[in-house]
Predict the structure.
Amino acid sequence: MNAQSPLTILLIPGDGVGAEVIPAAAEVLRALGLDLHFQQAEAGFGCFTRRGTALPEETLALARQADAILFGATASPSTRVDGYRSPILALRRALGLYANLRPVVSMPFEFSRPGVDLLVVRENSEGLYSGRERVETPDTAIAERLISRAASERIARLACELALRRAAERQRPPRLTVIHKANVLKLSDGLFRESALKVAAGYPDIAVEELLVDAAAMHLVRSPQRFDVLLAPNLYGDILSDEASALVGGLGFAPSANVGEGTPLFEPVHGSAPDIAGQGIANPTGAILSAALMLETLGLPAEAKRLRAGVQRTLAAGIRTPDAGGSATTQAFTQAVIASLSRF
Ligand code: NAI
Ligand code: MG
């Protein structure tokens, strides 16, 4: 990535706790003292209610120009609302962000399983999220699940490259688990499986295994330490990564990166958390660790490491938000992370 300065970071807090955790992450980023230029833009259901669009043109224009985007969460209703389309899906599509990367790493506290260090590589552009859903008759609805060879090979190539990079960083052999349900979905998941295994065969150093998605869900709970890189179609990757986040403390701790052709976008895995929004108690860790992923992608690995260490020290010192059994507010936790940066 080019390191022209300053780097422009577009903040899109969105709805609910997004508006609490993104300012917290921005505050921590500012405390690092880097040459970052912040901009802010609107998106989400609140924006739709006020302005009739969930993703205004100016947000998309700023997104295209920025070096990176830090995105909070949006509240998508579970019923159809005329004219509303999830802005995160629209952004991923508009920016060509075909890969959703969700690292899951053990946290230094009792709610986290030890020894977990895995990465879910989720195909982000098709599968059941391709937007081809329709009502066939008043009593029948159909969703089309699109799997293409090109998109499957593209995501598999990225998963293999990331497996090699992780192995070099960790000085251990790379492993890749290809996840599918090709025993039932023989044509669509069959194509995903075939494409992924063909690409992986070009990386002889990577130990490749395949797992049916239901078995993978079981193995994740039973022995998460056995996994390195998990490659999955869109919906499976979404579900398995939420499951995996519960192994290390829960949704409040899970970061993600959306990468591909355009401006990379970083977001906590969680949603708008309407049950706790507005109370100032949201866990900003997922957002802060997403900012760390962002710094890494922008070519600032030492700063990313410093951020992660700050979070780990804060948790290890017993400062936690209520979702992690503590009583710290979002602000208190954020200030503790900032204080621990100066000691690093
Ligand atoms: P959610 O992730 O918002 O909440 C699930 C549970 O985790 C809740 O109990 C919540 O309080 C807790 N939680 C989530 N983030 C937290 C944090 N930072 N700190 C402490 N606790 C946290 O998922 P839910 O309830 O299924 O969905 C709520 C809304 O969010 C829906 O409208 C959904 O469409 C949207 N959503 C948006 C996403 C996005 O913008 N990428 C992703 C997932 C859901
Ligand atoms: Mg999810």
Residues 106 and 116 are 5 Å apart (CA to CA). The domain at 1-97+254-344 is CATH 3.40.718.10 (Isopropylmalate Dehydrogenase). The mean pLDDT is 95. The chain has two domains: 1-97+254-344, 113-247.
